[in-house]
Design a protein that fits this description.
The complex is a heterodimer of chains A (304) and B (313). Chain A has a 5-stranded parallel β-sheet, sandwiched between helices. Chain A is globular, with a radius of gyration of 18 Å. Chain A has one domain (35-302): Rossmann fold (3-Layer(aba) Sandwich). Residues 1-17 of chain A have low confidence and may be disordered. Chain A has 304 residues and is an alpha/beta fold. In chain A, helix 3 (35-56) runs antiparallel to helix 11 (290-302). Helix content of chain A is 43%, strand content 11%. A 7-stranded mixed β-sheet of chain B has the order 2-1-3-4-6-5-10, sandwiched between helices. Chain B has a 5-stranded mixed β-sheet with strand order 7-9-8-11-12, sandwiched between helices. In chain B, helix 1 runs parallel beside helix 6 and helix 3 (49-60) packs parallel to helix 4 (80-88). Chain B has helices spanning 2-15, 32-37, 49-60, 80-88, 117-122, 135-147, 194-206, 224-233, 249-259, 283-289, 294-307; strands spanning 19-23, 42-44, 65-71, 94-99, 128-130, 152-156, 177-180, 185-190, 211-215, 218-220, 237-244, 267-272. Chain B folds into 2 domains: 2-156, Rossmann fold (3-Layer(aba) Sandwich); 177-307, Rossmann fold, CATH 3.40.50.920. Chain B has 313 residues and is of the alpha/beta class. In chain B, strand 11, helix 9 (249-259) and strand 12 (267-272) form a beta-alpha-beta unit. In chain B, 37% of the residues lie in helices and 19% in strands. The chains are: A alpha/beta (304), B alpha/beta (313). Chains A and B meet through helix 6 and helix 7 of A and helix 3 and helix 4 of B.
């Protein structure tokens, strides 16, 4: 906590002390949740994702489940926001660059008070604002529409730079998929951010090791991945993306080095939390229907 | 046009610290005032147009008025989806500025021929498109698009174009400038070919045809009233652009005329064929090879008027 707020200190104008107090108050409220609370939140997110994807007969449940623990830790622990004021200028921003895992974001936003839980039932339905990739229109709390990969980090970088230049305490968290790191635009911004000392920018990679047509190591191997980010002058931490205290720690200790952007490589399991979906490429596409849906929900409820 | 844009933007930026100039590692020598005097309002995103556009969108979504700046097709097509999704879909206040529209970089080869940019940018939802005709329009357009709250594409020529407007103009976003009056034919021009359009009209006058001349500096939203008035009040319409005849000014005007509830008016698009140019060379040379000189255009107009049935007005 003290490290986190100290990272927000800016020295160039007087009125910022008030802003910082307000920011600190919000962080304090969030910090009342324990790792157990966050695990429960992640479990609820997973249940929402499975229900939404099943009802919609949609794809990408595996991608949503791999990021659920990260999402719970981001919104339940790290991010400063006010669901009553989604446009609060000094808020932290969260950019879901892996837009296909939208159910995880929608479920997290609903659990965090941005819109009613019941709204999740409309996912993918005709006329609903909750589209099959992250959509900002009429969805309070969604900062950026995504769905084409490689867009989130450039925009997050621009937001982080604007905050720095304006002396605002905002930080920008951006969740990438591993397959997304095939996109050149990711590395364009990865080169840019350290040049401008954007230590208010945090990338989290949901490294579940499976992309659309196969294992990441067989399609375009990212290994050695941490070394790539380090070579681009980012401060890197590798964590087990399902070890809640480890994820919390990685998220709350940023920046790891003053003047450098942070990259958290979260080793995850695609489909995590539903045994028959884990590490299976099939569940990038298949929707949990009928007996699959019942079994998946039963497993998650059991582990609540 | 480039110089009048940068000079005007620099003056505006001194008064409004939301304005940020984001360049793609181009503008040697001409962006120095920004770099030195307004460093917090200047950014070199490097040779990385996708990132440049996303960064500009992120800054705009944080309250800035971000101008991306590069040459030829780099700030438009290289990063097209970033413009569509990040800028247009979020209605981010980003202005995309290119230098070298048309054949300004003719000798540099087909990679640098920007002759489909208007068509591509015009197709994007929420994107306004402005192509000033001379340095005077360029300066006025810079002010106008800064005030316009939303995505905009500004297509500039290069440096050192002739000043066509000899006096102050009343530049209105989305309204054509009527530069000459005549009832025989209307010439509608967009972008840096304006000087050629003026000379074409002068030539036509010598040959006994009086042309109305419209500078259509704003391609989108198009001044449909001016197009329809030309259809009602003159005998034929010709569009003139240093751009492919597919999708630019000619197409925009054709769309209006085809759907209008008015008698058919003779209409021709004058521009560049929708193909890679087999030539390279100076802008003057390229325009000549593509029949875009006052002599060639006037001759085409006269021949066309001889063929089309005369209309009573």
């Amino acid at each position: 906590m003290s490290k986190q707020t100290s990272s927000l200190k800016f020295r160039n104008s007087e009125h910022e002390s008030g802003r910082e107090l307000e920011a600190e108050r919000k962080v304090s409220a969030l910090h009342q949740s324990t790792s157990t609370d966050l695990r429960k939140l992640a479990n609820r997110i997973r249940q929402h994702c499975v229900r939404m994807t099943g009802k919609a007969n949609a794809s990408h449940i595996g991608s949503a489940l791999s990021s659920a623990d990260i999402m719970a830790a981001v919104y339940g622990r790290a991010l400063r926001y006010d669901p009553k004021r989604p446009d609060w200028p000094d808020r932290d921003r969260f950019i879901m660059s892996k837009g296909h895992a939208c159910t995880a974001l929608y479920a997290t936003l609903a659990e965090s008070g941005f819109f009613p839980i019941e709204a999740l039932d409309t996912f993918y339905q005709n006329g609903s604002p909750l589209a099959g990739h992250v959509m900002h229109k009429n969805n309070p709390g969604v900062e950026l529409s995504t769905g084409s990969l490689g867009h989130g980090l450039p925009v997050a970088t621009g937001m982080a730079l604007a905050a720095k230049r304006d002396g605002r305490p905002s930080r920008v968290f951006c969740l990438l998929s591993d397959g997304e790191c095939d996109e050149g635009s990711v590395w364009e911004s990865a080169l840019f951010a350290p040049q401008h000392n954007l230590d208010n920018l945090i990338v989290i990679v949901d490294y579940n090791g499976i992309q659309s047509l196969g294992m990441v190591k067989d399609v375009i191997d990212l290994h050695p991945f941490a070394e790539k980010w380090r070579a681009f002058r980012w401060s890197v931490r590798e964590v087990d993306g399902h070890d809640m205290p480890a994820v919390e720690q990685a998220l709350t200790q940023v920046p790891y080095e003053t003047g450098r952007p942070s990259c958290i490589i979260a080793r995850t399991v695609k489909g995590k939390g539903v045994s028959f979906m884990e590490n299976k490429l099939l569940w990038h596409y298949r929707a949990p229907l009928g007996e699959d849906l019942t079994k998946a929900l039963a497993e998650l409820e059991q582990n609540q | 046009m480039r110089n009048s844009f940068l000079k005007e933007l620099f003056e505006l930026a001194k008064l409004d610290d939301r304005i940020v100039l984001v360049v793609g590692d181009l503008g040697f020598g001409v962006v120095t005032p920004f770099m030195e005097q307004l460093p917090r309002q200047f950014l070199n995103a490097g040779v990385a147009e996708q990132s440049m556009t996303g960064i500009a969108a992120g800054m705009a979504l944080s309250g800035k008025i971000a101008f991306t700046y590069s040459i030829a097709n780099f700030p438009t097509m290289r990063c097209l989806e970033h413009i569509r999704n990040d800028v247009c879909y979020h209605n981010a206040n980003v202005k995309i500025v290119t230098v070298g529209g048309g054949f300004a970089y003719g000798a540099m080869g087909a990679t640098h021929h920007a002759i489909e940019d208007l068509a591509v940018m015009r197709a994007l939802p929420g994107m306004a498109v402005v192509a000033p005709g001379d340095p005077v329009e360029s300066r006025a357009a810079t002010r106008a698009i800064t005030e316009y709250p939303g995505p905009c594409y500004l297509r500039l020529g290069k440096a050192g174009e002739p000043v066509v407007h000899q006096s102050e103009i009343h530049f209105e976003f989305g309204k054509a400038l009527r530069m000459r009056e005549g009832r025989d034919v209307t010439l509608i021009s967009t972008g840096g070919i304006l000087q050629t359009a003026v000379r074409t009209a002068e030539r036509l006058a010598k040959e006994g045809s009086e042309a109305r001349l419209l500078s259509m500096h704003t391609l989108k939203p198009l001044d449909t009233e001016a197009v329809l008035a030309a259809a009602r009040e003159t005998r034929a319409i010709f569009t003139l652009e240093e751009h492919s005849i597919l999708g630019g000014l000619g197409s925009a005007v054709a769309e209006v005329l085809a759907e209008a509830d008015i008698p058919k008016v003779p209409f021709k698009r004058i521009g560049v064929p929708p193909a890679f140019s087999p030539y390279i060379g100076s802008q003057e040379y390229m325009l000549e090879r593509h029949g875009l000189t006052p002599e060639a255009i006037a001759s085409f107009v006269v021949k066309t008027l001889q063929i089309v049935p005369s209309r009573s007005l």
